[in-house]
Amino acid sequence: MKVLRVIIPIVFILLYVGCKQSLQVENPNQITDENLNQSTAIPAIVAGIAADFAYEYQWTIICSGLLSNELIHIGSFPTFREMHDGNVQDNNTTMEDWYGYIQRARWVAENGAERIKQIVGEDSARKMIEYAMARIYAGFALIHLADMWDGSPIDGGPLIPRAQIYDRAIAHFTEVINIVDGLPSTRTFKNGHQTLTPAQVKAIAYLGRARAKLHKGDLTGAYNDVANPALFTNLRFDAVYSENTGRENNLVYIYAYDRPEVAVGPRHQIQGDPRVPVQSPTSTRPYWRQAKYPTRAADIPIVEWQEANLIRAEYFYSQGNITSALSEINQNRRAAGLSDTTVSDLPSLLNLIREERKREFFLEGMYLQDLRRFNDPFLQGRMAFFPLGRREKDTNPNL
After folding, report:
1. pTM more than 0.70
2. Tag placement on the chain: N or C end, fewer CB within 10 Å?
3. What is the pLDDT of residue 93?
């Protein structure tokens, strides 16, 4: 009996240890941080950066669309209703999640650019198109952060004014502009259905920097970045979506086409302009529906050549040059299959520029910023920016 009393506990101990070890299964396909510190991982790093940006971008379009009433709430989400009403609380979970998506996209892109430098060395990194693209995604994520919040912390630091966040974006685009001519002409960047050349990457960086300058209030600087129309010929750079997984779906399609959560707002209920593809109400669908993104796999433009034209038009307006401004505007209209338009005075020209931007950039996340830039009376008595979320305020000791 004494022997059994000794053996039985030992057997249980051995069984426990054996079971514990057998349950400790290691995933052979798990990607560790160490595995990313090698040159063969660089394409995967940049693919992750692009995916995180695409995810935040669709939420930027939805949330800013609701606050600007480019989109209106027709569903059951109370967080969407707050945005539509222009009275967003700091514990609005949709807003707080979206803020996290933007900050993640920004951090992943900035960290990815630094990681590429650590892997191959700074000189070699600055000759890689993947490094340039990481900087570009960082720049656009920072523009979204500055466009939507009136100042924001970064990485748990103190509140940074919007102007400085735009400056941070400008620095990323400037880095790309400075290095892109040194990229091998044979190197390209595969972006979904697009294959971007170094020349196109350079144009994207110039246009991204111009947007940041314009939104910061530097119209002359923005014009200087887009003054050469030939640089932007047929340029388009997309955020890529697919039907592979839910996270890769285009959520603007999900919420503003497939499901009746948001509809097109009154100012964008426009017919006869292919730049604003909307569907008027029917007997079974009593609301205006966007048709710009008609599938889960519809890509979303990040920048297009038409934006350069409208920045130049706005600059020519500031110089009192109606003829040159109309030339830029009508190039865009002709490309959309529309007839030329004309105005004879500066106030009418400014109204035209505002209208053209509203239509050209429909559901591309810029309408709210334009309402502020042009002092639109719609924003009177309602929020013009999103509030800093409670999670950030509760967890950031520097606020």
Report:
1. yes
2. N
3. 99
In the prediction, which pLDDT does 30 show? 52
- Evaluate whether 237 touches 191 at the Cβ level (below 8 Å): yes
> Residue 43's closest CA among 103, 131, 149, 156?
131
At 68, the amino acid letter reads S
pLDDT of the residue at 32: 59
Q: What is the DSSP letter of 174?
A: H
Q: How far apart are CA 238 and CA 191, in angstroms?
A: 8
Nearest-angstrom CA–CA distance, 168 and 181: 22
Q: Which pLDDT score is estimated for 25?
A: 45
Q: Rounded to an integer, what distance in angstroms lies between the CA atom of residue 170 and that of residue 136? A: 10
pLDDT value of residue 33: 61
Domain boundaries, the chain: 41-268+288-373
Q: In terms of DSSP H, where are the helices of 74-218?
A: 78-85, 93-120, 122-125, 129-148, 162-179, 198-216
> What is the rounded CA–CA span in Å between residue 389 and residue 38?
37
Tell me the CATH class for 41-268+288-373: mainly alpha
Residues of the chain with pLDDT under 70: 1-35
- State the burial class of residue 318 (Cβ atoms within 10 Å of its Cβ: 0-12, 13-18, 19+): middle
